[in-house]
Every structure is written in structure tokens, then in C-alpha cells.
Write a structure and sequence with these properties.
By secondary structure, the protein is α+β, with helices and mostly antiparallel strands. The chain contains 18 helices and 34 strands. The longest helix is centred in the middle third of the chain and has 18 residues.
Length: 758
Amino acid sequence: MKLKITLLALLSGFISTFAQDKMFDLLKDKTETNILYNRVFALSHANEMKTKEISTTYFLQVYHEIQRADFNNRLPKLEVIRKAATLASIKNQIPLSVLISDFESISENDLQNKFNLNASNQLELKNNETLELEKHAINIVAPIVAKSKTNEVTFVLNSDLIFNTTSREIKSIFYSKENSSWQKINQNQPFTVHFAANGTQELALKIEFTNGTSTEESISFEVNSTILIHRNSNSVMAASSITATIPYQGFGETAAVLGQGEFEIFLDNVDGVLDKPIILVDGFDPGDTRNTTTIYDLLNYGTNQNFADDLRNQGFDIVVLNFPTYTIPGTTTVIDGGADYIQRNAYILVELLNQINAQKVGAEKNVVIGPSMGGLISRYALRYMEMNNLVHDTRLYLSFDSPHQGANVPIGFQHLFNYMAYGPLGNAAVQPIVDGLIKSPAARQMLIDHMEGHLQSGSAFEFNTAAASLLPTGAPNFRTAFQDELNTMGFPTLTRNVSIANGAGNGTMNYTPDFEVMNHTFNITTSQRAIINLRFTPAANQTNQVSRFRGQQYVVILWITGFESLANSKAPTFTAGLDSAPGGRFDMTGFAGGLGTDPILTEFFDNLNADYFTFIPTWSSMAISGTNNLYTPVTASTVSPFVASSIPTINENHITFNAQNVAFALNEILNPPLSTSNPELESIWVKNPVENVIEINANYSLENASILLTDMLGKNIYQSNNQTIHGSLSIPIDVSKGIYLLTIDNGKQRVTKKLVKN
């Protein structure tokens, strides 16, 4: 009975104290360093310090744990370092930070055998027990920015990023590239190191102390240079900065701000003159991970094919608009352009359209392509210009899997990631995910169901459990206001509006409602573990538990839950939950690849039962009205503002270009609606794919027609004039596998068809 009472006391005490770090308060005087590592979840295993390939993520996690484990709170919070990193990345610099610290830990054996829990739920040494704390040392230099946008990488060691809780004094710090001689690093003086290739790079570092000791290590970071990956073309102009002339003040901001962007013009491969602009607008990109070249690559398809390349070979010019991270002039306030307010970015596009219209030669109207959030930015900008008597001179607006009625990140994932990042676990690697994917202005505007609509009053991470608060709800002050504004504006009226959806149009689901996504135990140490349960949102009018996190400590002879958090969800009566609806998929396997080597995140993604979730419901990408059921198939009677669309029969990854939607987009761009009725050309049909014969069929007799077949590089393959097409015409042809363009011209109008040879 005594054992049972003791265990119950341990259980109740641990639950009430572990999350508040009070369990170890009486042990402060037992330490020499005043830093007790047991006070935090040991995600980085800082007591087993790495010395090779130290990454930004690893350093930040180590720092975060030592800062929170310090009884004396001598180190600034992690947010200070993150802000310094953001400001430096805007300057294309990689700051180095130094952490010199000694700390202690209680061995697993002593933790289980030498302590009692007192009436105040604090650990006390048993009578006659002595405590020998294990001692550890950290001497680490690391980059606090993970990537460089240039291969001429500028590093800087700022004195305010050197943190030392010990008596050891730094004499000098050196670096060496590829076993070259050691070069001294001077504080607050930037230095540049050249790297010949993109990808993961290493740099050796050495710290010398005044006591004669030294340590050596290596750091790792990514080089992603536009110069090294730039498309080989003599017609490409240099990237240019652009500033909106219309300011925007978002919710919670104290003043209106002029948005800043950058654009690059990739001229055509025919005449090299800006005369047929196609403007490609970047989408949701927290942290500005894409540059103009990688945005261009969003139009890759097939094997080594790119839709923008195809268009340039046909005489069109590609203008790529990116939304970088920048500071408001005269301040240190940072704007993450890739996840900023949609309205502010739309005003940048308004200015770009004005500039392109002033520069272009001839009377060709623009085409605007908006992938993902870029489709909302484009829609808003074009319609804003119409409503304010501004000339956008645009004939075609192509929305590419854009969330016209909202986007989705599973509410269970939102709860879990936010709790892992800002709850007791304190996972530094997850914090940028939460800040960008969930807490950014654009995310708050677009997410149909947002965690901030479910938080308990006064809590940054605990969800409400009352039944009335479980239905999907957007971020307060963001979601409803934005969607109402967008709906009131409507769509552009002076353009042809078409859509590409990556979500299935036949009702095919992404997994099923209430699907079990994870049930896994993470063994952090031999005495600390986390248990995670995740599910997709439920079927219509049902309630389920979508997320549960339990942090446990092994005390005496039991695993005891020290902290726990959970989230429930309810689906509306009119539709099943968002997570499994037909729609463009968020590919979590690709997402995991961009998160570095954090072991907890690696283990997390390795143990998911689902590889993807619904990101942009088909219902949203097609802006379907007349129903709120996200699972309803798209039919001829479906009400949508788009006059034409490409919709697959299977769910594809978000922003996937393939033969089907490339052919659709190409036809829309090359064949604008005829200004006068031309039944002869409109009736032409060409058999596709072709074999050794091109078969042309027409319902009307077509006289004096010219026929031209070119490859995607613009090379003539076949040409014939003064042809008569009556009923059908067969043209023997011998071509290799690939994509070709067949143009038929009757002297008044012409039509271009895309052919595929398998």
C-alpha cells in the first residue's frame, strides 16, 4: 500500500511540475555551472556534442536547450538570434554565433535511485545520498543562417552573437576551407569564401583559448547560387528590384508599407525583344527559399522539359516576379515577402504590370500565370486595376491550383507542430515551420481552419476542448476579412479566366476521413520519451481526436506523463473534413527533405502512415459555388467562374505540370478566342498522339491553307502551302519521340495544335 501511495504522489506531482521546470529547483545549489540539462527535453543530446558538420538547426537547438536549462537565465532567448539571422540573410550574409558553456546532468541511475519527491513536488536527495553530477562542456561556432543565395559566401562573426557562461576566454577563432591554412576571423568584419558548386558545403573552424587549449570542428550549410544554376541564355536580363506605389497596412501593423519585390525578364529565343510578355507570379514561399530561376522551374514537366522554355521558343517572353524578404526602410522590421499579406504583394504586381506595359514593344496583350498563392495575388491585382481604372492590358489569366476559397494544413498537424515548437518540448527546428506555414500573414489569410481560432484564452498552444469550438474556423481578424474582400471584388472581367487544378474532379479522396496518420513513440533518452498520435479530420458531422502529444519521464519504476496536449476536431454536417478531400496534395516526403537533419523531424517523417494531405481542395482551386461539400465531383453543371479548366481524375501534388495541363495551357496561350466567328478553323481536329501520319479532320472545307510543323525549339519539321482540307487529310511524317506544334493558317486566322509522338 505504501508503494501505491508513493507512486500516486509521484504521478500527481510530476504532472503538475515537470512542464514548469520546478521539479529540479532545489538542485540549483548542487550545481557548479547553474545549468542542469535535465530541466529540458534533450533533443540535441548536447551532452554528446557533435564536432562534424554542425548545422544551423543543430546549433539553435543546443543553444535553446542550454538557455532554458540555465537557472540564472544568462542567455538571451532564441528569438534574439533568429532576428539577427533574418536581418543578416537580407544582406546575403551568414552570421556565425559562438556558444561557450559548461553544464551538468544527473545520470539516469541517480535520477531513478537517489531522489524523493517532496510535498512541493520537487526532487530532494534521499537521506545519506550524495550526488555526483556529470559535467559537460560546449565550445561551438556555427552559422545561424542555413543557406546562401550566392557562391561567394560572406560570413561575419558579430561580437553580440558570442555567448559565454564560463571563465574560459576566447583568444582567436580561425577558419579553413578544404584543409587550407588557417585564416583568422576578426569580430564584426565580414569575410568572403568562394565555393565552386551548389549544395551542402563545409568549413573547418578552430577556437583558441587564452589558457592554451583549443577545439576544432566543421560546419555545414547550403549554397544555392542563382549564378551557378542560371539558365543559359544570352537574352536573359539581370534581375531588378521593384517597389509598389500603393501602400498596404495589414492587421496589427502601425503603418502602411510599400511592398518590395524583384523580377527577371527571360526574353524569347526568336527575336529577343520584349513584345509578348507572360508574367509568372510566385506563390507561397516562407523565408523566400525560391529565387527567380527556381520559380521559372515550377513550370518543369516530363523529362527535362519546361513550359516556359517551350513558350520562349514560340516567341513569348517570361517575366518572373518574386517576393523576397526585406526590411521596411528606416527600420529593422522584417517583411517575409514570400508569406506576406496577399494585398501588399498584389500591389507589387500592379506596379510590375505598369512597368512591363511601358517597356514592351508592339500591341500584344499580357498573359498572367499564378501558381498557388500567386493565383490569388494575380487575381487581386488584375481586378484591383480594373476597379481603379488602371490598364493591365492582359488578355489571359491562368490560375494554377490556387486557393480561391482557402487552403488547408491539417488542424492536427498545426496543433502538434505548434506545441512541439513553443510548448515544453521546445524544438527549435519546428519553430520556422510554424512561423511560416501557419503564423505568417498569408497563411492566416488562406487557411480555412487555423489553430488560432481554437486556442484557449491566454495560451499560445493549448486548444479548446468544448464541442462548440471544434468546427473549422479561420484565424481571427485575417481569414474572414480577406475572403470577404476577395469575394466582393470577384474575378477580373477584362481577361479570359482559366484554371489548372491538381485535385481530382471525380471525387477521389486523399486517404479517408479519420485516417490514422501517426501512432509512434519517440525515445529521446533512456528516461525521456514522447508519444504522438495524429489523425485526419473526421467524416461529416463526426468528432475525433486529431492530435495528442505526451511527454513522459521514467521515475522510479514507471513512465509518467509530465505534460500532455491534445486537439479534437468536428466536421460540418455538409462535408467531411478538409484533410482527405479531393485536392492538390501537399507532399510531405518532399517537405521533409528540406528540413535538414534534425533527428526528431527525421524520425517523425519516417513514421508517418500518410505521405500527403489535401492542401488545395479542388472545390477551392475551381472556386466552385452552389455547394460547400468539398467531396462533390466536378460535372458539367458545376458552377465555376472559369471559362475553361484542366482537371485530373487523380489527385496530384500541388503545382504539378504534366502533359495534360501543359497542352491545355499551351492551347490557351497560343489560341486566343477569335474576334470573329471562324467555323472552318474552329472545326479542325487532329488525332493525338501521332504515329507516322498526321491525321487532320475538319467539318468544313478549308481552301489555300498553309500547314507548318515545328518542334518545341521552333525548328521547322514540315511545311506545305495551298493545301485543301476537306473532311480529312493525312500527312506522312517521320519524327522522333517528343512534342510538336502544328499550325494551320487560312490567311485570315490560324490555329495551333500540340502533337505528341510517343
